[in-house]
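Ticket #4471: structure output looks truncated?

Reporter: J.K.
Steps to reproduce: submitted the chain below (275 residues) through the standard prediction queue, then opened the result file.
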Amino acid sequence: MTKTKTYDKKIIFPLGPHPLPPHPCGIHLTATDQNTAHNVPHRVLQDEHLQPVGFTTTMAQWIVNHHVSPEAIERDRIRYEALTRQGLVDPVQRFPINSNTQKGNWAEVLLAEYVSASCTVKVPVYRLRYNPNVDQSMKGDDVLAFDLDSNPVRVLVGEAKFRSTPSKAVVEELIDALVRSHSGNIPASLQFVADRLFESGNEELGAKVMSCNVLFAQGRLQLDYVGLLVSTRNVHRHIERNAKLNIHRLAVISLGLSDPEGIVAASYIRAGEYI
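Returned output as attached by the reporter:
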């Protein structure tokens, strides 16, 4: 259950409640909603109930889903069996080996799954499936989620970062990335999402995503911004001191882990066992 501190009524928290069990985030993480010293809505996630094996198993499943489609997994299986029979090594790499890319992707995947569970939004395209170089970070919005049935239509723009050691600089970097997205008006990755939907034959959903351009021009599109910073257990203190409110409808989430690098490494090891 989310613990809540008193809010300034002028501040809008663009997140729904913390997910309840049986959702993995409800099982493994606790949440407290508060405002930073500069009045930014801040959800503090902590790992006091985290069960490492269960949590990394869930993260591994999410990592696989975000990086590889079921169809690609089946093609990989057929290719791997054929190469193995010939005594050859499969050269295909589905997950990043670079540790920094692993950490960034891990945070991105968690943010996408978290907002999907917390809000009435859906992530229609897993963008990491389309990364031409898995060891490099992708450009564009980390998370783009939609509630296309709400009035007004709602688009949630997410930015996720992982740091082994939290700092003022990374908090400012997180907020600045969301401010730049806000300054660009329509989300930079909206066309990317629409194109992938059209390519997959999902014409109706692609058209709805494309219509967000018109809704924005008409002033009928609600844009929300959420940033996630994953680090050690004291990460929330850095956000509390340094996150400043620059745009409307912005919130930040901190996730403090006792062993953040170990959790990420274990998640990818387990993900590799699934494909």
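Triage note (M.O.): checked the attachment and the full token line is present. Confidence is low (pLDDT under 50) at residues 4-10.
Status: closed, working as intended.
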